[in-house]
């Protein structure tokens, strides 16, 4: 367990793991949902955290206190059996009808868009760390979802959601890649190669997602990934036909609320978690 323990006043007292991806859409969100539920089933007080989310349309959720967060963090909170709150998603950006809406700490705050890049980065990072510290003081374990790719080199100095955060809190990381995106070897090994040595050293496992077929057929692929990267492959998750509610993008906030209140969502999270746990070595999180 010591390998997953954070230290110092920056990160509070919680243990953590970051779920990074080779790109958007590879399965970071649903992997985070499953990890949250799996830990919760084992009595761990776990909470999800996504520093910054980006989305098109109206797929946001308004909490009981009136704060706005992304509907993905609502699913993750449900996985952890917690009520959704703004600290789980301190920065959110929506593009809708040609306009950009920015939410900071649960409230719309478009003024940050007018700030100079360096100042904007500083403001957002401060809000993110305030939220992370709050969660880490109140929960035993934080599961952090990254945003997009962690190695967009032109954005490194302005990063607010991936390696900047994991470096600061010294979080161990899982790297998720999707077979349906094709080029999973290039994506995973390329992502690792673009990390700095100390960042790459924090990657404790690779996760191959959405494999079409029997995952045993990809054993040789896992061996190649491990030999080329030096990072253990935690498993291959086969494509799962049972996803329904979790893959939906609600049309409006009210639809998200109704979905959260249905037992079907909770049951689907349990089934999805069982599927993931069958194919991933999640027990390593508690070893």
From TrEMBL:
It holds the Pfam family CbiA. Keywords: Glutamine amidotransferase. InterPro entries: CobQ/CobB/MinD/ParA_Nub-bd_dom, P-loop_NTPase. The keyword ATP-binding does not apply. Residues 17-241 form the CobQ/CobB/MinD/ParA nucleotide binding domain. This is AAA family ATPase. It comes from Amycolatopsis silviterrae.
């Amino acid at each position: 367990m010591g390998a997953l323990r954070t230290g110092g006043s920056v990160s509070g007292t919680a243990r953590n793991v970051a779920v990074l991806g080779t790109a958007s859409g590879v399965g970071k969100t649903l992997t985070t949902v499953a990890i949250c539920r799996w830990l919760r089933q084992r009595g761990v007080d776990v909470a999800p955290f996504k520093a910054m989310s980006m989305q098109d349309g109206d797929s946001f959720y308004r909490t009981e206190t009136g704060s706005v967060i992304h509907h993905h963090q609502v699913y993750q909170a449900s996985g952890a059996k917690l009520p959704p709150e703004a600290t789980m998603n301190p920065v959110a950006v929506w593009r809708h009808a040609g306009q950009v809406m920015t939410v900071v700490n649960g409230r719309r705050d478009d003024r940050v868009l007018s700030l100079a890049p360096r100042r904007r980065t500083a403001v957002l990072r401060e809000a993110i760390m305030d939220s992370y510290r709050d969660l880490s003081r109140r929960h035993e374990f934080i599961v952090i979802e990254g945003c997009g790719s962690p190695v967009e080199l032109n954005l490194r100095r302005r990063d607010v959601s991936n390696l900047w955060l994991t470096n600061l809190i010294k979080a161990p990381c899982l790297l998720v890649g999707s077979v349906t995106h094709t080029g999973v070897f290039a994506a995973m090994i390329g992502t690792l190669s673009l990390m700095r040595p100390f960042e790459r050293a924090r990657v404790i496992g690779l996760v191959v997602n959405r494999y079409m077929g029997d995952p045993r057929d990809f054993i040789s692929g896992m061996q190649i990934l491990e030999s080329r990267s030096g990072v253990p492959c935690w498993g291959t998750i086969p494509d799962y036909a049972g996803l329904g509610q979790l893959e939906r993008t609600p049309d409006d906030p009210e639809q998200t609320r109704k979905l959260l209140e249905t037992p079907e969502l909770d049951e689907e999270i349990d089934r999805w978690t069982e599927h993931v746990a069958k194919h991933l070595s999640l027990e390593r999180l508690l070893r």
